[in-house]
Specification:
Strand order of the largest sheet: 5-6-7-8-9-10-11-12-13-14-15-16
Number of strands: 16
Number of helices: 7
Strand content: 25-35%
Order of helices and strands: HHHHHEEEHEHEEEEEEEEEEEE
Distance between the termini: 131 Å
Structural class: alpha+beta
């Protein structure tokens, strides 16, 4: 019984071992090398061919029986055929005649690859034509082969996993649409080949990730083909022949001289006009005047500085009006409106947009002497009077362009000086100081108070603009205010019409019986105008 049990156990293990060997899965790496290694295939085929007797080793007696072998044939065949031919041996077919019997002679390989592939007429190896199929690729490797296909390069992970034609939209059937150019005449076959190579690499990455030892991250730089710009222009310029002429012109870009533009912090501008005017003065105008036609000259120079948060604006203005004096028996012409004024403000931007801490100053006087009608009593002269107003406070500035009307712009500056001074001075002894609010026997007067200055420039259109200036000073005992308005209507770039109106209030001077403390100056002029 024990012998029978031992026999059954031995038989069972023998059958299991046999089944395991029969159904054992071959090593995939060894299988891959058997398919792709040409040297191993040549060795296997050579071993298999050596096990089969070659035709040259078979004697004529074995090939033909004695009763069928012709005796005349034995004289034409060589006695002994060589067993091995040199690699470069070429066998020539003997001359054929009517009595010649063709005997099959074996093919001799000149190269081991001839046992796998055929040769073309020029002697090169003919690779499989349909190399997209897995069957045609069997036996190919990069050993002893020129690299011509990415499939035969070492497997390096490049990160290209997503297919080129990946889409999340439903593909439309375009098979019924007509094709202007056949597919085989376009890049479609090449793209299919590229997709096939990418699909094979992607499948290999997913099936055998443990066999991919390198990736593009393992290399400091990837090889690339670079061509200089000169070679590209010479080789791929389709217009090179068209542009050829007797004189050769270079396709190089012309040299450009680099010029660095410096930042400008000062901005200068000006305005000049020479116009004929009609003038009207009230009887109590503080400088006097006669109603008549006159020649009016107006000049303004501006120099503004701005750098980061610092602003410094300067304006010099000169108005001069000269008119004839038919009712004056002492002189043929007289000086009407004569104003020389400087206005400047220095500011630093505050913490609120548009506002700045500022200090402003205004100084004004005249250049020529002014006399009443038919009198030699001097009414005003240079520095007689001289007005100076200065203050410290805040300034608000806005400059806004219209989005609907072209050239319409509003510029407004508002200066509030809670602490300011107002100084009056008369330097000529012949001028009556009382007329200008200075006590009798004094030449100057200093008042402390507050000042508000508003400067508005409104451009209705490119040719019509309105300039307004309001100055208000109070010493909390008396008030001096002056409101200037100028309407400019340009007929062209050179000709314009100007309407000027100045209203002044000063309760520090003797009151007029008609107008009281109010004073009016109005001018209408037409002439030349120039801006820069």
């Amino acid at each position: 019984m024990k012998q029978l049990l031992t026999f059954f156990i031995i038989s069972f293990f023998s059958l299991a071992s046999t089944a395991t060997e029969a159904y054992q899965v071959p090593d995939t790496l060894n299988l891959f090398e058997n398919i792709t290694d040409i040297s191993r295939q040549i060795q296997q085929r050579t071993t298999a061919r050596e096990s089969i007797p070659l035709l040259e080793e078979v004697s004529p007696e074995n090939m033909f029986p004695e009763e069928t072998f012709p005796e005349a044939l034995s004289d034409t065949l060589p006695e002994v055929l060589p067993e091995v031919f040199p690699p470069d041996t070429i066998l020539l077919t003997p001359t054929l005649n009517e009595d010649t019997i063709i005997v099959p002679v074996p093919f001799v390989s000149r190269n081991p690859l001839d046992s796998i592939y055929t040769r073309k007429a020029n002697g090169t190896l003919q690779l499989p034509e349909y190399y997209q199929s897995a069957y045609a690729l069997s036996g190919l490797t990069f050993n002893d082969t020129i690299f011509y296909n990415p499939l035969f390069l070492p497997m390096i992970y490049n990160g290209k996993i997503i297919p080129r034609d990946l889409t999340f939209y439903s593909s439309e059937d375009e098979s019924d649409k007509g094709l202007l150019i056949p597919q085989d005449k376009t890049f479609a076959p090449r793209l299919k080949h590229v997709d096939f190579i990418q699909r094979v690499r992607r499948d290999y990455y997913m099936e055998y990730p443990d066999r991919v030892r390198y990736s593009v991250l393992n290399f400091s730089s990837l090889p690339s083909v670079r061509t200089s710009d000169e070679e590209v222009r010479e080789s791929f310029n389709p217009f090179r022949k068209l542009l050829e002429s007797e004189t050769a012109y270079s396709l190089e870009a012309p040299g450009v001289d680099i010029f660095e533009i410096e930042r400008k912090y000062w901005v200068r501008s000006g305005e000049h006009s020479f116009q004929f005017a009609q003038n009207y003065f009230s009887d109590n105008w503080h400088k006097g005047g006669t109603n008549n036609l006159n020649f009016n000259s107006y000049h303004v120079l501006r120099a503004n500085y701005k750098k980061e948060k610092v602003k410094f604006n300067n304006t010099i203005e000169w108005r001069l009006s000269v008119f004839n004096a038919p009712d004056d028996s002492l002189r043929e012409y007289r000086i009407g409106n004569d104003l020389l004024r400087y206005y400047g403000d220095f500011g630093i931007d505050a913490f609120v947009k548009g506002w700045s801490y500022s200090m402003n100053m205004e100084a004004k006087s005249q250049l020529f002497n002014s006399y009443p009608t038919n009198s030699n009593d001097l009414r005003s002269a240079l520095l007689s009077p001289l007005y100076v107003n200065a203050g410290v406070g805040l300034k608000y500035a806005v400059n806004k362009k219209s989005e609907r009307v072209r050239h319409r712009n509003v510029k407004w500056d508002l200066a509030i000086a809670p602490i300011s001074i107002n100084y009056r001075y008369v330097g000529n002894d012949s001028v009556d100081v009382v007329r200008y609010g200075i006590p009798e026997g004094d030449k100057s007067l200093l008042d402390l108070g507050s000042t508000i200055t508003s400067i508005l420039k409104y451009d209705f259109t490119r040719y019509i603009s309105w300039d307004s200036r309001l100055t208000y000073f109070t010493s909390y005992d008396k008030v001096i205010t002056e409101f200037e308005n100028s309407l400019n209507m340009a007929l062209s770039n050179a000709f314009s019409t100007r309407l000027y109106l100045n209203v002044r209030f000063d309760d520090s001077v003797p009151a007029d019986p008609t107008l009281g403390f109010w004073q009016v100056n109005q001018t209408l002029s037409f002439g030349l105008n120039y801006k820069w």
